[in-house]
Structures are given as C-alpha cells and as structure tokens.
Design a protein that fits this description.
about 400 residues, FAD/NAD(P)-binding domain, 6-stranded antiparallel sheet, elongated
C-alpha cells in the first residue's frame, strides 16, 4: 500500500512528487529506466535551457492553441518562479542575449543531483526498472526485476512523457493501457523536428552547412535564426518552432535578406552585370554564401531575369518538402491525453484520483525553455491537486 504513486521519473513526475511530499504524504515513484530523468539529462548536454525570461503574455502566446489551458499552471510556475526554484537547489543562473535562462554550470546534472538529494531527504521512495503494464481495477501493475508488482494507491500522478526519444524512456507505450481502459488519447505527431527535403545530388557538398540569419516562415508562424542543410533535409532552430504549421502541410518559405527590403535588393541587382553569369553576379552583388546560392538554384530554376522579380523571390523563397522527420527523431511530440479528458485539476475524468502531467498531455511548444517550463508547471499543478484530493478522502 502507498498513499501516492508517481509513474515516470522525469521533470514533471519529480515535481509532482515534491508537491505531494511537501503536503505530508508518503510517495512512491516508479520509473521504467535504471535511472531518473534521462531525457532531461540528454537535453542539458549542450546547455540546459530552463526557461525564457520574457513578458508573461508573450511567453504564454508561444503555446498557441493550448495557451488558455496552460495559463493557470504557467501563471503559478512560470519563468521567474523557475529561476527562483533553481536557486533553492543551489544553482545560480544567467540570462542569455536571447532571454533564455541557463544554470551558470550550463549542465543538467548538478541541478538533477541536488533535486534528487532533496527528494530523498524528504522521504521519496524510488523504484527504478519498474515498468507500468496496466490497471487491474484500481491497482497498478508493474514489471520489475523481482517479477510483477502491484500497487493500490490513494492517488496517482502519471507523467510518462510523449512519443519521442524511446531509448530514454519516452516511448508512448502507455497509450495502449489508456485505450484498453476506454480512455481518450490523441495520436502522437512530431514537433520540434527536422524537415524532410528530397535534395538533388548537387546539394551533397553543402550537407552540414547553415543558412544563417534568415527568417523562416510556415503558415502564420515565423522564426528568425538558422537552419542546417543535412542529407535528410533542413534542421535547426529556424525550423523547429514552425513544426505545427509544417505538420499541417504548410509551405516552408525563407526570407534570405530579413534586413533589406525588395527595393534595396532590386537596386543592387539592377547594376550592370557585364560578362558575369547570373549566378556569379548574384553571389557577388548580394554576398551570398555558396550554400545559399545552391539552395536558390535547387528550388527555383531557372531564375527570372528581372531584378525586381529576383529580389521578391529572395525575400520569399519556397522550399518544397515532404513533411517532418519521424516521431522518434523529434525533440518533442504533440498528442497524448487531450485536455477534454481531464478536469481543470488535470485528473482523468474517467479515473478519479488519477492525474496526468508533462508531455503526455496534448500540448505543443517550441524549444527554448518552453517545453521544460510547461512540464514542470503541469507536474507542480497535478501534484498539488493530487495532495488536495488525498486530504479530502
């Protein structure tokens, strides 16, 4: 018997556990992998981006169609609260030029070690290599190194992640248990993923080269940044935030000269070309790097001769694509448990006492701290509401 059960040892599950512990409840946390928060550690290998320090309304708008549902949770545990929370774990932070908040150490491991130590001190009972295999009535079954184990908790928070990074534990297999129990799910789809482009052979020499300082557009979404040309298409910070529109089939359009208007480009392109080829003239007149010239040639051939038409093209270059990379290659996913299946407390409407948190809920967000912030905020919300539920029993 246990008072509260957490399934999933990522940031959302750990935050839910801490809220329940702080409310005085006994908490067991079951994690399928041999150690906790593996995806969190992987995400922090190149610098742990905790959140984005910006005006709250602008921060909230980033969550698009899901912003209204996430608003109360993010209002209670948004960027400023996350900065303060990291400090309680002994992690000083700094804000980069883009507004992104990082630990001074730039690593996830010191923060995670301090957090786990604090949770252990508070009495968290951690069970690793415990894979949840389903329900038997109100009991939760787990496959463990010691065979099948059964727990019948008074309240549960499930925080088992989305459908990407299966090797780190986020494999989406839990949806089978939901379906078998008649619970609603939404099919997973990739988000923050690379774009599939079927390049011709002449692009091979530019694999690994970036398209820098451009504005990337898809549907109503825009992102200034860069994208790397790869053997599989385009990847990087300029592409990932456009995932919702690209996933729906929107064209990718690139403004290669975001700081110059059509008129300024037209003026440069109206100078005498002499005996230069059109490509050489373009490269020299506009100081285009070879990979950008190759991209232009790849997607728009032949080029128009009129300078104004060329200028217009370079401000809105359409790149044909075949959609986003597969699910398991995505940084995150959209889909899982729809908000309609949950109460405002994040409790399953058809499973009283069972709450959901983190990326397993159907919401979408770009990289840049937004993903982690919402995981922590929903975990905190679910943990507090689970504690309130227990106190009412």
């Amino acid at each position: 018997m246990t008072q509260a059960l957490i399934i999933g040892g990522g940031p959302a599950g750990l935050m839910a556990a801490e809220m329940l512990l702080d409310a005085g409840h006994h908490v067991t946390l079951a994690e399928a992998k041999p150690s906790l928060a593996r995806k969190f550690l992987m995400a922090g290998k190149s610098g742990l981006n905790l959140t984005k320090m910006q005006d709250f309304d602008a921060f909230l708008d980033t969550y698009g169609d899901h912003s209204a549902k996430l608003s109360p949770m993010l209002a209670q545990f948004g960027p400023t609260a996350i900065k303060d929370w990291a400090k309680t774990l002994g992690q000083e932070t700094f804000t980069g030029s883009s507004g992104r908040l990082f630990p001074t150490s730039m690593k996830a491991s010191p923060l995670l070690r301090a957090w786990i130590l604090r949770l252990n001190t508070k009495g968290l009972d951690v069970k690793t290599r415990w894979r949840w295999t389903g329900w038997t009535g109100t009991e939760f079954r787990f496959e463990t190194p010691n065979g099948t184990q059964v727990i019948r908790p008074d309240a549960t928070v499930i925080a088992v992640g989305g459908g990407s990074w299966a090797r780190l534990g986020s494999d989406g297999a839990w949806t089978e248990q939901f379906v078998q129990n008649g619970l609603q799910t939404v099919e997973f789809a990739p988000s923050n993923a690379g774009l599939i482009v079927d390049w011709s052979d002449h692009m091979t020499r530019y694999f690994g080269s970036p398209i820098k300082n451009a504005i990337f557009k898809a549907g109503p979404l825009t992102q200034r940044g860069e994208a790397v040309i790869s053997a599989r298409g385009l990847e990087g910070g300029g592409i990932y935030p456009l995932s919702p529109a690209l996933r729906d089939g929107a064209d990718l359009r690139i403004d290669l000269f975001p700081d110059q208007n059509v008129e300024a480009l037209t003026k440069k392109l109206s100078k005498p070309r002499g005996k230069q080829s059109q490509s050489n003239f373009l490269r020299k007149a506009l100081r285009l790097p070879p990979q950008a010239m190759s991209l232009i040639s790849e997607v728009q051939r032949p080029l128009p001769q009129d300078p104004a038409q060329i200028a217009t093209l370079l401000k809105d270059l359409t790149v044909p694509h075949q959609g986003l990379r597969p699910l398991d290659e995505a940084i995150s996913t959209v889909g899982g448990v729809p908000f309609d299946a949950l109460t405002p407390d994040l409790m399953l409407r058809d499973k009283p006492g069972v709450f959901c948190a983190g990326e397993m809920i159907d919401w979408d967000a770009p990289t840049g701290g937004y993903l982690l912030t919402a995981c922590l905020a929903t975990g905190r919300w679910a943990g507090k509401r689970a504690a309130k539920y227990l106190s009412a029993l």
